[in-house]
Amino acid sequence: MKTNIINRGLFLTAILATVSMLAGCDAFDLEENPKSFIAPENFFQTPDQIESVLSTCQSRCFQVWRNAYDNNPDLFRHDDQIAGGDLIIQLDHGASFYNLHYANIKDLNFAIAAIVKGNIDNAPASVRDQLMGQLKFLRAWNYFQLVRMFGDIPLLTEETVDYFNYLPSRAPIADVYQLIVSDFTEAANKLPDDWGALVGRPNRWAAKGLLAKVHLTMATAPMNDQSNYAKAAALAKEVIQSNKYSLVEDITKVFSMETKYGPEMMWSFNGNNNNPATNPKIWSGIYGWGDNSADIWWVDNVYPEQPRKYAYVEILDHDGVRFSDLPNKVPGIQKYLYDSWEDFQKGRSIINIPIIRYADVLLIFAEAENMANGGPTQEAVDAVNAVIDRANGYEDNPDYPLLTTSMSRDEFDAAVVEERGFELCFEY
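Above: the chain sequence. Below: its structure as tokens.
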């Protein structure tokens, strides 16, 4: 009973206090007048704040179990390399990637607008240029992913005023590519050749390599602007002649931990102890869960017998037993299984996922050079054969021979495109 009296007293005290407060102001005439409001375009006032956007936009693509690039190839499951695909594609197919890339583009645009506005003019010009180069590089890459997946898409830039009440229409593919080319070109002009100890950042040559890939894509369907073949070949040749990169000689070391930052890898999603990749068991069909397996028919009937096949596809277990003779009976994706066995057993990985590497540039050059010249030049042949020769273990392989200048333009083109599928399988 005493407790109830005390509680009632507290309740009445609270009511009286509230009435007293209301008596001191007009409760029905409150004016919302915040002392300050930090809009997105006003937030970025220092280089470090711009850097936070660069980190966020790359981390958003490489988040553990977040429908991002480190663990979810479902968007690409309908090709002939990954198991489980078919032609029954849902209406919301790729929605998570669409949202991810536009979230990145929105953040990048706010940061670009801040630099254009002069918010960090107190920083040295070299710092501003490097930041703008990285922002434009990432925006170009995000749009490049989107336009290849979805075709005509909304085109949002730093000049877009209201993201929250704006219902954009789809821009033609040509307009999207125009922005991509402009952004990658500016990035190539402003980024350094090398970042030194700051590994993982895009440099000038990564921008040129991806720009070459953009022009090669524009030369083919759906744009079919064949004038882009020569542009792609010229840019890829610049990267080759820079001598900045080279092929890893041993095919079993291409994706190893010791070569994750070179000499072949040009730009990747980076895994480390502070930001590990997804559980590596998703990539293993033999020791893991087999979430992302290679298509069995493609492995058995399409991929040629050569050392590369066993370096890129998980076909044998540690005792040399073939996947078909093991309980799970599915081949895994070996490219992302080169972290230590100890890390694998712990369910963690610090592997990188490459976005552009030197082998890709060689194949871009070979394809574009052949098409631009109406047939394979010796330079085009040498470029693609460097990749094929390594794949064959530097030995003659009658089942997968080197290419020659005696091939017709179309024969050579088909062979290079096929080689791209074998060399770049399971990459983004």
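The first helix runs from residue 2 to 23.
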